[in-house]
Amino acid sequence: MTSIIDSILTNISKYDNLWCKILWIKNPYIDNYEYQLSRNIPMFDSVAYKRYPKLNNLYDKLWIAKNQNIKCGMLSDLKNKAENDLPKYPFFIKPRYGHKNAGSKGCHVIENYNQLMYYIDYEDSMWCEYINEKESMTDFVLYEGKVVYQLTSNYTKGNNPISDEWKYISCNNKPSLKIESWLLNNVKNYNGIVNIQSRGDKIIEVSLRPARGGIYLKETRNKNVIQNINNIY
Predict the structure, then answer these.
(1) What tens digit of pLDDT does each residue of 164-179 get?
(2) Rounded distance, CA 115 to CA 108, Å?
(3) For 81, which of 46, 85, 107, 136 could close a Cys bridge (C-beta 3.0–4.6 Å)?
(4) What is the pTM of this model?
(5) How many CB atoms lie within 10 A of CB 34?
(6) CA distances for 14 relative to 18, 19, 20, angstroms
(7) Separation of alpha carbons 45 and 111, rounded Å
(8) Are 105 and 72 in contact (CB under 8 A)?
């Protein structure tokens, strides 16, 4: 499955420049950046998963949730439960493994029994308590067991409970100290970028690559930041 996704992404990316020219829009992944990130940096989760096998547990969202004592479990375990034994509504369902899926595909807020039954047969999916807090995302840069740089984007609180409408990115944004502490306690012997998505001070997803192909890091247009990240890799 992973190799199929990689092949599809590679084939689609060939047409990026063509479509941008036809639509008269900027291609943010390659245009107008004097300082580029190294090709040694994995930009896709499937690539990072293969490169860092000792940290594969970070791509297991069920492990991430259990590690933080978030109420969770496999979606399939709810199939034969009585309605009174189900998690409290609303709760969230999503694909369990982050390196096999992208975006918000397979993510749903479950508000009643009928909704649950509609999605109950989703394979490799999990459920967890719904965390109704502000969402944010941070690209952490680790070197020799320390956070040497971070770039945090805060998500808008819109009407869509699954995805954001826009992000506010600033060097003044700071990640939760609890999240940074979790990172340093659980990611050992690794130098590079760790992307963490969170709600409040609870982590919902971890990736060993930068957000959006490194676009937010490149948008700093900071030579020292880009070169130092490249030097780590």
Answers:
(1) 567 888 888 999 999 9
(2) 9
(3) 85
(4) 0.84
(5) 8
(6) 8, 10, 12
(7) 30
(8) no
* Phi, psi angles (nearest 5°) of residue 146: -125, 155
Q: What is the pLDDT of residues 74-86, one digit of tens each?
A: 999 999 899 899 9
What is the total residue count of the chain? Answer: 233
- Mean pLDDT confidence for 55-73: 97
**220 is written with which tokens?**
């700093």
- Residues 208-224: pLDDT tens digits? 999 999 999 999 999 99
In one letter, which amino acid is 18? L
DSSP collapsed to 3 states, the chain: CHHHHHHHHHHHHCCHHHHHHHHCCCCCCCCCCCCCCCCCCCCCHHHHHHHCHHHHHHHEHHHHHHHCCCCEEEHHHHCCCCHHHCCCCCEEEEECECCCCCCCCCCEEECCHHHHHHHCCCCCEEEEECCCCCEEEEEEEEECCEEEEEEEEEECCCCCCCCCCCEEEECCCCCCHHHHHHHHHHCCCCCEEEEEEEECCEEEEEECCCHHHHHHHHCCCCHHHHHHHHHHC
